[in-house]
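Notes taken during the Thursday session

The instructor put the following on the board and asked us to keep it in front of us for the whole hour. The protein is Major facilitator superfamily (MFS) profile domain-containing protein. We were told not to look anything up and to reason only from what is written here. First, the residues (180 in total):
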Amino acid sequence: MVGPFPFSFIADQLAKTEYKKNWKKLRRTSKEEDGRLMDILSRKELRKALIICLILIIAQELSGFCAITFYLQPIFDSAGTGLSSDISALIVGFAMLVSSFVSPFLVDRLGRKLLVIVSCFGMSLALFILGAFFYVQDSTDYSTDPILWIPIFSLIFFIFSFNFGMCTIPWTLCAELFPE
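Then, after some discussion, the predicted structure tokens were revealed:
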């Protein structure tokens, strides 16, 4: 007699045996369902999913988000806006924080495809506006004093556009298309 009850030893042994059977069964089914690289290469639908995910992740990396966020202060310094570059970078950082809280709710409501398209278009437009500002400032004789707000506006617009689509959707799709 091991426990306080006469048959507790038998009950413990039965529980251990049942646990071992269930554990072996779970491991066997999980090994059957584990994804392998050969499955991705041999099945057409998984190859298509891989190509979609790779294109979206490459587009995300080539969007320039890391370069923009790394060089925020020099961008604002060269723009010559009325605000200091530190304050401007903080404003853009706050926009980044706010947009990262809003974007998960938009993904389910508007759909992934629409958000990726709108995100890419918005990022392109924001960078075009920023590039046009610097072209006018550096290569023409026009004064940029009335439009000194454009760099901070275009970078906030870029951050919002990036966070609403290209930031989250590639990794969400990878998790959905390759569950194992």
